Amino acid sequence: MGSSSSKSDTYATSNNIPATTTAKEVSDVPISTTKTINSTLPSSASAINQLMEELKVLQQNTLEWKKPKTGESCSHMHVENWSGIFMCSGCQTKVTDADKIQSETEAMNKLGVEDLSEPGDSVNRGVTIAFLVAFCEAFDLYEVTTGDVLRDFIVPMTSGSRCRFVELDVMQKSGVVGPATTFISHCNKALFGDLVAALCDGGADQTRRVWPDIFTVRQWPSSKSDLHFELVIEQCPSFMVVCPSIEEVRNMILDDASSRRFHASANTRVPFFRIWCLYEIFCAAHFGKPIAMKCGRCRLEGPAGQRVISFESDIARATLMHMGFAINVYNAEATVASDRAMIFDKILSFEGGVAGFNVRVRGVTVGALAASKHPALQCAACGDAAAMAAVRERAEEFFPLAAAGGFLAVVEGQAHVQHCK
Q1: Do 200 and 135 meet the contact criterion of CB atoms below 8 Å apart?
Q2: Looking at the predicted structure, is the pLDDT value of residue 30 above 50?
Q3: What is the DSSP string of 113-155?
Q4: Average pLDDT, stretch 178-207?
Q5: Residues 381/290, Cβ–Cβ less than 8 Å
């Protein structure tokens, strides 16, 4: 997850999250599902196309905000507040200039005073899947990381007012912003195209609104809390974690997986190696949310503007299996050391402690392994009406798979149906 400040400084916590130990049995019920989706937009295509044109103009006016090249001096145009220390997001160094520190402190306090929002408002900052598809296509972001999107697009476009991206005037009038149905847990070092393709997998309803934090959270320091992840997870009817398919992880032997002998690059790209993502998964399990686990990669076909996007998840089943052996919050990492310490303190206060936490999160991968070949079931679990109807038509066939994946409410007719149109 990405943010402009240390999560330990601004994270809104709940103290009523106990740890419980669960395990799920895996059962496969083969079913054919269409995994390929076209980047053609739904009925609101003209409005979204207009939005993309307006965002392109805004982006053109902020090109000077690119990360400095090697050898160039950095002007520290965008800083983050890490536990009271200003760090430049461009060159990743501590800001020491007194005038810069004073101006950033004043700006941070001003934002805190002017922000009249409440923690419960965060869930209302979701964006449609259709918007994310269009945004990725308009700026050709398939092969860049989510962190690159944050640095080169989100931050520059919001630099004028230091607002959240969803609060830009062009976004507010577009109709794509509204209550989120699905909380998205992901790593900023993974490819943005993989994230978008995962959201579309299984013929997802592109009018469904999701909660990717780079768009929904203020990416500028503020004296007022803006990271209410526990509350948003509780309020969203569904939860999805997106993991890239990494060759080094997919091809390793189980002994290496259980010993966590991974290539160093996997540590920043795999959610199960990031302590914030693990904690988000744990919160979703505690609140009883259906958890869709997407592991795979984006595949593109066709010319720009008419591309067909597919999410290759079959190649990633070995990755999911290896994750089940490797999950251990003791080894999980965080960008900011104080974040890791804060989460550990919370975990140790739960019944079952670290061991219970690990077992609960490992259970998610077991269920995900069962459902990974059937993305339509995951779409149904996220509230897509068409997918729910299709699954319930074959409820008896889907029941064992739904039980393994934690999606029984889908086949029993009790799942939340999203209404984003």
Answers
A1: no
A2: no
A3: HH----GGGGGGGEEEHHHHHHHHHHTT-TTSBHHHHIIIIIH
A4: 94
A5: yes
353 and 19 in contact (C-beta within 8 Å)? yes
Structure tokens at 414: 């009790």
Tokens of 328: 């251990």
DSSP string, 304-332: TTS-EEEEE-GGGHHHHHHHHHH--GGG-
Q: What value does the mean pLDDT of the chain take?
A: 79
One-letter identity of residue 51: L
User: Cα–Cα distance between 156 and 67 in angstroms, integer?
Assistant: 11
pTM score, whole prediction:
0.82
For residues 3 and 79, what is the distance between their CA atoms, to the nearest angstrom?
Answer: 11
Query: Strand, coil or helix: what is 86?
Result: strand
Determine whether 21 is exposed, middle or buried from the number of CB atoms within 10 Å of its CB (0-12, 13-18, 19+): middle
Bridge partner residues of 94 (DSSP): 87
- Of 31-35, 82-86, 157-161, 233-237, give the lowest mean pLDDT range: 31-35
* Per-residue H/E/C for 150-173: HHHHHHHHCCCCCCCHHHCHHHHC
DSSP classification of residue 246: -
Contact, 183 vs 236, CB < 8 A?
A: yes
Count of alpha carbons within 13 angstroms of residue 247, beta-carbon side: 0
DSSP letter for 297, please: E
What is the DSSP-derived secondary structure letter of residue 407?
-
Q: DSSP characters for 192-239?
A: HHHHHHHHHTTT--TT-EEE-HHHHS--S--SS--B-HHHHHHHSSEE
CA distance to 53, 359, 374, per residue, from 64 (Å):
19, 47, 44
Give the total residue count for the chain: 421
Average pLDDT over residues 143-162: 93
According to the model, what pLDDT value does residue 15 have?
38
User: Letter for the amino acid at 5?
Assistant: S
β-strands 291-301, 308-312 pairing: antiparallel
Residue 201's closest CA among 166, 234, 245?
245
- Buried/exposed 176-185: b ≥16 CB within 10 Å, e otherwise: bbbbbbbbbb
**Taking a C-beta distance cutoff of 8 angstroms, is the pair 291, 366 a contact?**
no
Provide the token pair at 233. 């997870």
Provide the pLDDT confidence category of residue 304 given band limits of 50, 70 and 90.
confident
Q: Tell me, what DSSP letter sits at residue 66? A: S
DSSP-derived secondary structure letter, 23: -
